[in-house]
Specification:
By secondary structure, the chain is mainly α. The protein contains four helices and no strands. The protein has one domain. The longest helix is centred in the first third of the chain and has 22 residues. The protein is elongated, with a radius of gyration of 19 Å.
Length: 96
């Protein structure tokens, strides 16, 4: 095998390992259930406050769909999910 082929294989394996590492750090189902419930509650809070309804334009962060939030949470680590939850909280605090 040429050095280029070996390098390509090594790089592919390294990238594959990095992907596995990210997946292994993803939030667990129990955590994501709580995250999704909180996200839906935050959506409802924004929807019931005239000054906060503008937040709902961001479909990714503000959705009434539990499954939308739950599925997203499963793809990220707890730190990122907590950051998103805190961002919604801060936005609600600001407009309320």
């Amino acid at each position: 095998m040429s050095k280029q082929v070996i390098s390509a294989i090594v790089c592919s394996l390294a990238l594959g390992g990095a992907t596995l590492g990210v997946s292994a750090q993803a939030a667990d189902r129990g955590f994501c259930q709580g995250y999704a419930r909180a996200a839906v509650v935050q959506f409802r809070a924004a929807a019931h406050n005239d000054r906060c309804r503008g937040l709902l334009r961001d479909d990714a962060a503000w959705s009434p769909d539990f499954r939308h939030h739950f599925d997203w949470c499963l793809t990220v680590d707890r730190r990122e999910a907590n950051g998103q939850r805190q961002s919604r909280k801060d936005a609600l605090d600001h407009c309320a």
